[in-house]
Amino acid sequence: MTADELAFMDRFKVGELRVDPGTPILTEGANAPQFYTILSGMGLRDKTLEDGRRQVVSFVFPGDLVGLQAGVMEEMAHSAVAATEM
């Protein structure tokens, strides 16, 4: 992100959340009113398949936004989990 983009996003910032590897950030099916900007570390978005297996949808890195989907569609279609300390 550019300095201008970071300054714009900082206007919406309420606080910071630090999580350990394996910690869920957002849960599939939940209606989360907040979204997060990844500041450090790496995470992933995943879905639970009908047979119970987990499918990785994408990876998240610093600068990525997580949770916007719930604000638009009212429900998360995937989970977001920390893969490293974030």
Described by the principal axes of the CA atoms, the overall outline is globular
Helix content: 10-25%
Specify the CATH class. Answer: Mainly Beta
Poorly predicted ranges: none
Our Rg estimate from Cα atoms comes to 13 Å
Can you walk me through this structure?
- It is a single chain.
- Helix content is 16%, strand content 28%.
- A 4-stranded antiparallel beta sheet has the order 1-6-3-4, with no helix packed on it. Strands 2-5 form a two-stranded antiparallel ribbon.
- The mean pLDDT is 86.
- By secondary structure, the protein is α+β, with helices and mostly antiparallel strands.
Q: How would you summarize the topology of this molecule?
A:
Elements: H1 3-10, E1 24-26, E2 36-37, E3 43-48, E4 54-60, E5 65-66, H2 68-73, E6 79-82
Antiparallel strand pairs: 1-6, 2-5, 3-4, 3-6
